Each structure stands twice: as C-alpha cells, then as structure tokens.
Design the sequence.
C-alpha cells in the first residue's frame, strides 16, 4: 500500500502543534480547517471536550453567498466565528492552525477573527 508522504508530514505537524496548544473554558481553542471546497472554524473547550461555537461556509447565513475555500471565504467565516464567540461570552482564544502555515486563507481567517474582536 502506497502512503502519501505529505499527508503523514501534515499529521505529524498537527500532533506537534496540539501537544502545545489546549483550549480551556476561559480561553478556548480556535481551530480552523480548510477542505478543498469549504472553510470550517470552531471554538473548542478541550478540558470539557465540548465545542462552544461552530461555523462553516455551509451555514445557512453564509450559504447564499456561495463561499469557497479561498481568502474571501475564510474572511467571512472568521467574522462570523468572532460574532458568535462574543455572543457566547468568549473574547480570548488560542489559535490552532491545524498544521498549515500562517499564510493565505489561514491568515485571512485569523485577521478577520481579530477584527471581529477576538484576541490571540
């Protein structure tokens, strides 16, 4: 069976990051995931094992905009995550980039979340 080396390296980066980053009730983990078609963001309390806020480009409020997994889609999802986090009473978060470099869509997502009022 042939194993894709890039997938293994990305999973190792993800694990290495997750060893250092954990979310708590006071400061949840803001995780971003990018697939080939969509952008996903969520706030996770790792101590309790619960997701506090979840937003994707498939949500009803964003579905009419027909967003894709590009910079514009990442910015839109980042803003909505920040708005919903404020409603949930969260202002400080820990950013989890899921093994990706801080560039492009990940950077756009993070900056939109910062503009929305989250600090990390």
Sequence:
């Amino acid at each position: 069976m042939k194993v894709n080396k890039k997938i293994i390296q990305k999973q190792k980066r993800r694990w290495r990051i997750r060893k250092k980053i954990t979310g708590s009730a006071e400061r949840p983990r803001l995780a971003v995931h990018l697939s080939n078609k969509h952008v996903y963001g969520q706030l996770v309390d790792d101590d309790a094992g619960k997701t506090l806020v979840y937003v994707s480009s498939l949500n009803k409020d964003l579905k009419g905009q027909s967003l894709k997994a590009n910079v514009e889609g990442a910015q839109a999802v980042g803003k909505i995550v920040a708005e919903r986090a404020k409603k949930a009473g969260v202002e400080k978060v820990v950013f989890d980039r899921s093994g990706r470099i801080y560039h492009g869509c990940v950077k756009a997502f993070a900056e939109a979340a910062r503009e929305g009022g989250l600090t990390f």
The domain at 5-115 is CATH 3.30.420.100 (Nucleotidyltransferase; domain 5). The chain has four helices and four strands. The beta strands are 29-34, 39-45, 50-56, 94-96. Residues 1 and 17 are 28 Å apart (CA to CA).
